[in-house]
Every structure is written in C-alpha cells, then in structure tokens.
C-alpha cells in the first residue's frame, strides 16, 4: 500500500456526517470542521429555527448541509432521525453524538426527574442513535466513525459550587460507553472515540461561567483561557478521517490543560 498524503488522509469528500446538537456551539463548530474537509452534513437539534440559521451559515461557507428537528431524549424521535437521515442522504459514515443537557442542584436536593432528563439525552440517546445507525448502515458496510462528546466533567469531581452531579455522571458514562462500543464494534471496522471538552463559552455553559467568572475559570487552565470557535476542529477531523483510522476507544481532553492540573 502506498502511503497517502496528509491532505488525502484528512479528506472527507464523499462522506456524510450526522451531528446531533449541531445547530450551535460545539456541534456547529464540529459541523464546520467536517464540512470544510468535504463531508455532507445533516444537522439535528430540537428547534427548527436554530437549525435553519445554522444550515444557512454552513451553506454560505459552501458546505452541503441539511437538517432534521428531533429530540434525542425521546426514543421515537431518535430512531426517526436515523431513518430519515439515511432516506435523505443515503449514508451515515460519521456520527457525532453531541446533544446534551445539564442541571444545577446540590446532590442532596437534585430532582429525580431532572436526573432522568440529563441521563435520557446524554447517555440513553447516544446509545439508541449509535445502535440504530450501526445496524442500518455502518455494520452492513463494515465502516464507520462514531464520535461521542463527553466532558472533563466526567473525569473528576468538580468544585462544590458547580453542583452538576447528573451531568458529571452522564459524561463519565459516555467515556465507558465509548470504551465498550469500540471493543465490540472494532470487528466491523467502526471506530468509536470521545472528546472531553473543557470550558467553552457555549449557551449551556454560559450561566455557570458567568456565575463563577470567566477570568477565574480561565485561570484554572495552564494555557490561561477558555476554548474558542476553532479548538475542537482538529480532533474532530482526526477522529472522523482516515488520519485517525488506527485510533479507537480513546478520549482526549480539549481543555487548555485543566485536566492535567486536576490529575485526570
């Protein structure tokens, strides 16, 4: 086999990516990364207005993009998302499980229904969608890339004032889910990896960052800053492309070094 150039290894031309939670924040950043490398993009989130806006942004950048509104905390919606994507796009070569929810409350007072809401979207939804996509497309094709978005919150405990026990637990579960799925589905040539972002100024994290203070948050990172609109692009493309074809069952923290300080 003749070794390919680095440009060929990272090229996603002819591939199709489904990205949940893709209408803003980290999901939209990853959609740009995959689309800029040549992939066709299917975006999903709950709100059609957000999806229309994100799709227009990606299309303006020359990226072939479509969208489906779906709530991945609901099994019926999640299965419909996989089926409709395959009907409309003909393939799902890359699945990015990114949709997520959080809830702030002291552990002793955390509502059980809020716990269930977080787990249903952050863990159960990932499982159902990955299973559906693999059964319908990746396993028969014997090829695929699954990228699960975990968090550095799943690597360690947090300062007491953060009060995000359900979120942290869900993200720890995503890492275990990634390890196990990679071990089971390697025989189908499906690579399964996770990204553990640190603090980015996303809509979900904005309230927490503002309450603690952006400067204080940034001071915990050896690099002295929060994540920006480019910082997930590189690892996303590595995991999704042939440049990462021998990487599976792994997680990488993209956090400015916070997890090094915390000892993950």
Summarize the structure.
By secondary structure, this protein is α/β, with parallel strands linked by helices. The protein contains 10 helices and 7 strands. The radius of gyration is 18 Å and the shape is globular.
Shape call: globular
- The percent range for strand residues is 5-15%
* CATH secondary-structure class: Alpha Beta
Category from helices, strands and their pairing: alpha/beta
Helix content: 40-55%
Strand order of the largest sheet: 3-2-1-4-5-6-7
Number of structural domains: 1
Which architecture name does CATH use?
A: 3-Layer(aba) Sandwich
Could you characterize what this model shows?
- The protein is an alpha/beta fold and 264 residues long.
- The chain is 47% helix and 14% strand.
- It contains ten helices and seven strands.
- The protein starts with 5 loop residues before the first helix and ends with a helix.
- 45% of the residues are buried.
Helix-strand layout with pairing:
Blueprint lengths: L5 H5 L5 E5 L4 H12 L3 E6 L2 H13 L4 E5 L5 H15 L4 E4 L14 H30 L2 E6 L15 H21 L4 E8 L5 H10 L1 H6 L13 H8 L10 E4 L3 H5 L2
Parallel strand pairs: 1-2, 1-4, 2-3, 4-5, 5-6, 6-7
Helix pairs in contact: 2-9, 4-5, 5-6
Keywords: NADP, Oxidoreductase
Pfam family, one: adh_short
Protein name: SDR family oxidoreductase
For the structure shown, list the relevant keywords.
10 helices; 47% helix; 264 residues; Rossmann fold; 7 strands
